[in-house]
Write a structure and sequence with these properties.
By secondary structure, the chain is mainly alpha-helical. The protein has 7 helices and 5 strands, in the order E-H-H-H-H-H-E-E-H-H-E-E.
Amino acid sequence: MSDAAQPGTLAAEYLPDLSSLTPDQRATFRIGQIVRLCVAMEGTARDVHARLQRVEPADLRDGPDGFGALVAEIQRQLEEGEFPHLDAARRALATVRKVYTERNRYAHDRLVQSDFERWERMSLNNTMPSRQKSVDTDSLRDSVLEVVSARWLLFALDAVVAEWLNGALADKAPSTRESILEGWKQILDGRFTLTEGGGVSINTPTH
C-alpha cells in the first residue's frame, strides 16, 4: 500500500493545469474546489460516524448537525469503545477539524470580484477589513491540498474502524490483511505524502 488510489482524489480533480486561466479565474476555481472537497470530507466523516453506530450511512437518521460536533461525537465513541489506535485517531481528528475550520476563510468570508481587476474579501462578522490585497492563488492551492490530506486521514480512520469493528479485511490472506491494515494505520498517523497520481505514498522510516 505504498501508493493507494482512492475514488475522488485523482490529481485531475485538484491539481489540473490552470495556466490558461487568469489569476481571478484560478482563485474562483480553487475556492470552488475547497468548498466541494470540504463537503466530501464531511460526507466521509459521517460515514465513520455511521460505522460506529453499526449502520449503513444511508440508514443513519440522526447525527450532529455541525462538523465540530460531528468530530467530537466520533472521538467520544472511539474513546468509549477503547479504540486501539486512539492517540492517532485523536491527532487525525484534530487536524481534520482544523482544516475544515480554516476553509471558512474562503467559504464563509466571501470572495467577490471588484471591477474585474481585483478581489475583495468580505467578512460576514465584520472582524476583517473589507478590502485586502489580491488573492494569493498559491495559498489557495495549498489549501486545496490540505483538505485532500485531511480526507485521507478520514479514509484511513474509516478503514481502520471497519477492520476493528467487523473484520472488513477478513477475506484477505493474513499477510495481505496485515499489510493493508498497517498501511492505513500509517496514513491515520499522518505518515504519508500526496502523490501526483492522486494517491498517497507512505513515508517509510529511515534507520
